[in-house]
């Protein structure tokens, strides 16, 4: 490598420009690189979300999810494993792929087979959501929407159709549907007693709405010299007009929707409630996707909201409830601050030992240039600025000193021997060329094994290794080029007279340096005597050293413990509450009121900022695919607590609440969820760091084994919140239809099932209908359903009206009688023949019981999950989403 040193001395301006180029490219790389807490963990996962309102978890699993999984195993390539979870009306499948798979092709294959399978799935099944998922897709910001005078429906509508659509324009941001509130929907509230009195059933109302509220294009007609656009009043423009739609005519009397139902601008039954400090609100989560910068996303959200201020109601209040940028910025600033302190201390040490400002300047310039070279390479490789890469650079600061320091010190030694400056540089560089290269390569080799890691560890530690290796290689290259160039112009030849004057100088800095050198010489002599003593008594020294080394092994035993990553105190925590399975959402909300009060009793008011309750299931399965709390129904709730900056340790409050809540609320399950961005990423979407999966073809056999294992896991030191995720006691009632008796009175199983579906879950799943708001231009669902307060007992369920197929025939227009006519022509109507009517209780029996609250699969086999959190550091098996399969 001596040729490059000679070249640097012959062409100094070339390498000066090279140094400035490194500076410019390095600054550009820093500005352009995304900033985040961790490197992008790009484990390829595709999520498929199926929805079918009214379908039980067991039916969702067997009818839809199981078929979808089986189809994927034969048509989708490079699958590593498949996991799924089925709830009432929602099923989520996660397909994990082999590393380095082409994720675009994987998404295309999953989409293709999902579309093909629609013909094999229950009628009315809609195409699924198909999204790409990775561990870095976590909420970086949560927005709370509230406002005096704005009801929950208005808040949800603003979040869904105004704010969410604007946030979608931010690069790297993804916004699921809002949590909480009431979804705006055109509700057709059925009057079951009026239906029965009129000889109608819920299905008749559905058929009438679908026949009278339609989207029917007409076309154009040429009359005289003009071409007229022909339109019809197929879709009423005013909600109240839907009340005036006719259903049928009986004996010359027309029955309208208003006679048996009431159409209103309302919302479906609420399944998700959000409260902020006890007041109803809307919660919007902003997710980070891929390698995008968390700080840039949150800055983009703030800019969008500022620009939308004039478009939103003045009474709307938008609050940032959980801003992860504060934590990210704090972590990044902490690492940068420590790196700067290390660099300053290193410079001071060099100045003290070498006693030369010129030599210190040369070394102080080479270190940041080496770091900038590393950042340029990281930018080229698509890495981000995060605590791992910055930690690697901070680690390298002390090592980077070696190349430049050794070379400068050796050049000074040659200068002191009387050589000219260029010759001293050449000799000094030549004497250390091989040792410096070997030292640099040896340090780089230490980090090579990190490139053979797999899984999450690979994505975390490889960028750190790259940062160190690139900085070390750049340091060696700069010590061969820029350092000799600067030494040529900054260092001076040795002058004995100057050294003599320095020895008698009264300058405080000079005298301090001379005193330090004298003290260091004495320390060096003392170390030499100690080393000589150890060599003289080598046997005794080796025995003592061996005993000390063996004794150090004690540190590996508890209470030191082991973990994948240090615990993080982000000043917030989240507790999941699960009441008795099947508890109504209103009762769960009441329970959360009491729990919030208990939390306020345990945490001083001066340390408490907000308490956010997210109760029930989200409205969309898309939200469920991002959820780490794994809710299964209205009995579930997340309670998130935000503390002030000067709070006591969060872990202490969590431990206290674990004890208090379990004591005061028996029968309720509590477990702590990851809330900080670090733990959420490392848990990879799971609700606990340890997940034991029991897989086998016998679901109930899996349950028996899981309960046995759970009893053992609970006694493992350090384990906390151990529980089985899937409940087996979801309350249900089975309607057994007597098909023979139903046939005798003109009814079929389909008639009964449709009446029950429409009355209990609404008509939109199987027979969708829409209403276009002419003011906002937003299309809303039209759903026919019986209000829940009209069906709150078994007697009312037994009285549900059911009708069979009608016998009427109708004509649209023309010379024959029909229900419509050209403007100006008389309209006539042929009444239909009334259909048979009966009530559900006459053809079916209702059997109460229980069923599975949720069903999970692993590689198309039933699976049970035992989740457990880590309480303290005694648990030696703690890992990142560790999965033990039996």
What general outline do the C-alpha atoms trace? elongated
Proportion of residues in extended strands: 15-25%
Radius of gyration: 36 Å
The end-to-end distance, rounded to whole angstroms, is: 57 Å
Tally of extended strands? Answer: 30
Mean pLDDT over all positions:
82
Structural class: alpha+beta
Helix content: 40-55%
The helix count comes to 26
- Low-pLDDT parts are 806-835, 873-886
Task: Please write out the topology.
Blueprint: H1 2-10, H2 12-32, E1 45-51, H3 57-75, E2 79-87, E3 90-97, H4 103-117, E4 129-133, E5 139-146, H5 152-167, E6 173-174, E7 185-190, H6 192-198, H7 202-212, E8 219-223, E9 226-230, E10 246-250, E11 253-256, H8 257-260, E12 261-266, E13 272-276, E14 279-288, H9 294-307, E15 317-323, H10 324-354, H11 357-380, H12 387-416, H13 421-446, H14 455-480, H15 482-490, H16 496-503, H17 508-536, H18 538-552, E16 572-578, H19 585-602, E17 608-616, H20 621-626, E18 636-643, H21 650-664, E19 669-673, H22 677-683, E20 690-695, H23 699-713, E21 719-724, E22 730-737, H24 739-744, H25 749-761, E23 770-772, E24 779-785, H26 794-798, E25 801-803, E26 837-839, E27 844-851, E28 855-858, E29 861-870, E30 882-885
Parallel strand pairs: 7-24, 20-30
Antiparallel strand pairs: 1-3, 1-4, 2-3, 2-28, 5-14, 5-15, 6-14, 7-12, 8-9, 10-11, 13-14, 13-17, 16-18, 16-19, 17-18, 20-29, 21-29, 22-27, 23-24, 25-26, 28-29
Helix pairs in contact: 1-13, 2-11, 3-4, 10-11, 10-12, 11-12, 11-14, 11-15, 12-13, 12-14, 13-14, 19-21
């Amino acid at each position: 490598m001596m040729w490059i040193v000679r070249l640097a001395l012959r062409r100094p301006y070339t390498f000066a420009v090279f140094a400035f180029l490194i500076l410019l490219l390095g600054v550009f790389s820093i500005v352009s690189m995304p900033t985040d807490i961790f490197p992008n963990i790009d484990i390829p996962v595709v999520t498929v979300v199926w929805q079918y309102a009214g379908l039980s978890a067991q039916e969702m699993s067997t009818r839809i999810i199981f078929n979808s999984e089986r189809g994927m195993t034969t048509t989708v390539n490079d699958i590593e494993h498949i996991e799924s979870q089925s709830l009432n009306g929602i099923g989520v499948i996660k397909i994990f792929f082999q590393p380095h798979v082409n994720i675009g092709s994987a998404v295309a294959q999953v989409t293709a087979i999902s579309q093909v399978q629609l013909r094999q799935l229950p009628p009315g099944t809609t195409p699924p959501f198909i999204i790409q998922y990775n561990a870095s897709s976590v909420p970086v910001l949560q927005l709370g929407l509230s406002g005096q005078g704005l009801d929950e429906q208005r808040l949800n509508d603003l979040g869904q159709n105004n704010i969410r659509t604007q946030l979608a324009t931010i690069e790297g941001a993804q916004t699921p549907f809002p949590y909480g509130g009431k979804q705006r929907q055109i509700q057709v509230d059925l009057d079951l007693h009026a239906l029965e009195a009129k000889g109608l059933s819920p299905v008749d109302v559905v058929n009438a709405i679908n026949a009278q509220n339609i989207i029917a294009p007409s076309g154009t007609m040429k009359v005289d010299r003009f071409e007229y656009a022909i339109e019809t009043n197929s879709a009423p423009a005013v909600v109240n007009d839907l009340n005036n739609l006719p259903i049928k005519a009986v004996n010359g009397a027309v029955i309208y929707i208003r006679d048996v139902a009431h159409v209103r601008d309302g919302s479906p039954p609420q399944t998700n409630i959000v409260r902020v400090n006890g007041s109803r609100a809307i919660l919007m989560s902003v997710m980070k996707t891929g390698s995008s910068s968390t700080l840039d996303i949150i800055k983009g959200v703030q800019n969008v909201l500022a620009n939308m201020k004039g478009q939103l109601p003045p009474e709307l209040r938008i609050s940032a409830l959980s801003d992860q940028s504060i934590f990210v910025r704090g972590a990044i600033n902490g690492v940068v601050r420590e790196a700067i302190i290390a660099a300053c201390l290193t410079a001071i040490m060099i100045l003290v030992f070498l006693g030369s400002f010129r030599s210190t300047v040369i070394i102080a310039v080479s270190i940041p240039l080496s770091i900038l070279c590393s950042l340029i390479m990281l930018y080229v490789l698509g890495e981000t600025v995060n605590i791992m890469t910055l930690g690697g650079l901070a680690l390298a600061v002390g090592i980077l000193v070696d190349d430049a320091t050794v070379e400068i010190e050796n050049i000074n030694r040659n200068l002191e021997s009387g050589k000219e400056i260029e010759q001293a540089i050449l000799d000094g560089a030549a004497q250390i060329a091989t040792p410096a290269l070997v030292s640099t390569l040896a340090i780089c080799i230490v980090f090579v094994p990190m490139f053979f890691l797999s899984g999450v560890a690979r994505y975390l530690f490889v960028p750190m290794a790259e940062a160190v290796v690139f900085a070390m290689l750049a340091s060696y290259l700069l010590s061969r080029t820029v350092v000799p160039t600067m030494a040529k112009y900054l260092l001076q030849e040795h002058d004995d007279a100057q050294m003599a004057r320095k020895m008698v100088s009264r300058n405080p800095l000079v005298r301090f340096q001379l005193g330090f050198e004298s003290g260091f010489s004495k320390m060096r002599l003392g170390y030499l005597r100690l080393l000589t003593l150890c060599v003289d008594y080598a046997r005794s020294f080796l025995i003592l050293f061996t005993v000390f080394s063996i004794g150090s092994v004690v540190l590996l035993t508890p209470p030191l413990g082991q973990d994948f990553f240090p615990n993080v105190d982000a000043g917030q925590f989240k507790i999941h509450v699960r009441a008795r399975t099947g508890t109504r959402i209103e009762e769960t909300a009441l329970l959360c009121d009491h729990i919030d009060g208990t939390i306020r009793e345990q945490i001083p008011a001066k340390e408490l900022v907000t308490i956010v309750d997210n109760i029930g299931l989200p409205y969309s399965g898309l939200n469920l695919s991002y959820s780490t709390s794994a809710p299964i129904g209205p009995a579930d709730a997340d309670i998130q607590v935000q503390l002030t900056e000067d709070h006591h340790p969060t872990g202490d409050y969590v431990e206290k609440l674990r004890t208090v809540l379990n004591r005061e609320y028996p029968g309720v399950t509590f477990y702590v969820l990851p809330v900080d961005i670090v733990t959420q990423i490392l848990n990879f979407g799971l609700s606990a760091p340890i997940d034991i999966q029991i897989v086998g073809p016998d679901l109930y056999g899996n349950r028996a084994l899981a309960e046995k294992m759970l009893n053992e896991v609970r006694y493992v030191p350090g384990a906390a919140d151990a529980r089985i995720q899937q409940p087996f006691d979801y309350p249900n009632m089975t309607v057994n239809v007597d098909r023979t008796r139903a046939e005798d009175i003109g009814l079929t199983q389909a008639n009964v099932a449709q009446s029950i579906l429409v009355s209990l879950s609404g008509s939109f799943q199987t027979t969708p209908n829409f209403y276009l708001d002419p003011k906002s231009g937003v299309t809303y669902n039209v759903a026919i359903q019986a209000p829940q307060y009209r069906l709150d007992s078994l007697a009312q369920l037994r009285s549900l009206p059911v009708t069979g197929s009608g016998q009427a025939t109708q004509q649209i227009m023309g010379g024959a009688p029909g229900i419509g006519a050209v403007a100006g022509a008389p309209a006539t109507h042929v009444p239909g023949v009334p259909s048979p009517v009966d009530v559900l209780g006459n053809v079916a029996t209702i059997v109460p019981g229980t069923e599975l609250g949720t069903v999970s699969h692993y590689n198309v086999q039933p699976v049970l999950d035992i989740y457990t959190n880590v309480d303290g550091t005694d648990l030696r098996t703690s890992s990142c989403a560790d999965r033990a399969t039996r």
